[in-house]
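User: Quick sanity check before I run a bigger batch. Here is a single chain. Can you write out its predicted 3D structure?
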Amino acid sequence: MWELVVWVLGGPVVALAGLVARLRWQAVRDRRRQETLQVWAERLPLGSEVEIDDLRDDGSRLRFRVVPAASSRGRRR
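Assistant: Done. Predicted structure follows.
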């Protein structure tokens, strides 16, 4: 009897565990990406504009463009 239960439920349980693992991995990746963007944004000069083009699932692409504040344009550091 138990063999039948294991045989019937084994596949779906393994598939569900795989799905949970994949979703957890994606959540960790997204959190790290968010933390990285936050650190970058904190280091930008005040008044700068940030353009982010984030295509994913999972043809992954992240384009991060910073347009300096009007007062800092043309000025060298």
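The chain has a mean pLDDT of 83.

User: Great, the batch can go ahead then.
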